[in-house]
């Protein structure tokens, strides 16, 4: 089950005076990889490769194209702002609310904790999966996972008004994510492929 290289494909570059090459390979498991290489000197100075991966109905699909370096830098800067805000939010949330979070669950049965975390099974994980996570990682680690930004809404719901400031900070990170999505969408629209 090894990778098989396909014949390289040469395509005209954005300026039209040269070309770029797309190298593709696949394996018996239905996986594909692509590598794009700009061979035009003028375009290499002006353009960089923008790639975005999408999940459509369970299948990962990558879209690539050449965009101006300035656009790539804007996308990278927006991504960095999201990552930094996310790290600050989760670190601050864990330091400020970690102890009240653990204290809230002290002395409670695992099933009671699961019920509170999942609103009686309305969301992930199932009771069996929760027990497996607790057995494999320990209850403290399972509870610590809720300080991931995508799970902070559970912390806010359970701790109530004392954690409401987290909601405002989460909204700011979500605003930065929308800005990143908009810049990435702009890059895709400008992409030459």
Low-confidence stretches: none
Mean pLDDT, nearest integer?
A: 93
State Rg: 23 Å
Helix content: 40-55%
The SSE string, one letter per element, is EEEEHEEHHHHHH
Got a strand count?
6
Number of helices: 7
Shape: elongated
**What is the chains' assembly state?**
single chain
Give the terminus-to-terminus CA distance: 31 Å
Largest sheet: 4 strands, antiparallel
Query: Which class best fits the helix and strand makeup?
Result: alpha+beta
Strand content: 15-25%
Features:
193 residues, alpha+beta, two-stranded antiparallel ribbon, 7 helices, 54% helix, 21% strand, elongated
Describe the structure.
- This protein has 193 residues and is an alpha+beta fold.
- Helices cover 54% and strands 21% of the residues.
- It is built from seven helices and six strands, in the order ββββαββαααααα.
- The protein has helices at 41-46, 69-105, 110-118, 127-137, 139-144, 152-159, 164-190, and strands at 4-5, 9-12, 19-26, 32-38, 47-56, 59-68.
- The strands form two sheets. Strands 1, 2, 3 and 4 form a four-stranded antiparallel sheet that branches. Strands 5-6 form a two-stranded antiparallel sheet.
- A hairpin with a 2-residue loop joins strand 5 and strand 6 (59-68).
- The longest helix is centred in the middle third of the chain and has 37 residues, at 69-105.
- It is elongated, with a radius of gyration of 23 Å.
- The two termini are 31 Å apart.
- The model has no long low-confidence stretch (mean pLDDT 93).
